[in-house]
Structures are given as C-alpha cells and as structure tokens.
Write a structure and sequence with these properties.
single chain; alpha+beta
Amino acid sequence: MRSLPRHPRQNGFTLIEMIAAMVILAVAIPPMLLALRQATIDRIDPVRFSQARWLAAERLEDILADWRSATRGYDFVAAANYPDESPVRDHSAFSRSVRIVESGPDLRTAGAGCKTVTVAVTWTDSRGRPRTLEVAAVLTEWGP
C-alpha cells in the first residue's frame, strides 16, 4: 500500500488568523488610547487644584502676618497693598487676586471693625474650562 506523502507542518499564521488579529487590534486600540488620554487629564486637574489651594493659602498667610504685625496691623490690610497677579510669579498658569470688604461686626451691614479678606486663584483646567478657588478669612481691628 502506498501512502500519500506527508507535508511537513509549517509554523506560522494563516491568512484568516492574521485578518482576525488585525480586526481585534483595530477595535481594541482606539478605546485604550482614549482611556490613557483621559487618565492623563484626570491626573493633571487634581495637581492644578492643589497648586491653586497652596497659592491662595500663601497670599492669605501674608495678609494675616501683616494684620498681626506690630508695624502694619489692621489698617494696612487694604486691597491697594495686595495687587492682582496675572500671572503669579513662578506659576504662569495661575492668576491671583485679593478682595477686602469692610463691614460691621455682623459681617452684613456697612460699618467698621471687621474685614472679610477673600483670595481668589484662577486657572484653566485640562479641558479648557476656567476654574476659580476662593479662600476667605475675617479680620477684626481688635486683633487676633
């Protein structure tokens, strides 16, 4: 009996396997790239928020130090002494402003004796939207 010649098995991929692999990759890669992009965006925004919070606290601490100072004090705390910064030095992505409103002890009516100091830091998030963080404190002329 004569047997048919056996062909040696060839290693490799068939055309069908190659096409299937290409289809799978074409379907899977774009969502993976979008997910990586979103992960980068999600990582940037909290860092910028933290920087904004630090910049606001830094300016508020400067104002509080002036208020407590024996040479400067309550009367020195005025908007003219804290000009707007756009951009903030060494932080070009941020702007910072100070608003000071003087009021009576109830903080609602006009008068003197209390100042509400608000520090606002503004920046643009990773999606291009403007963001603002405000930190406030109330100072009295009767001291800390």
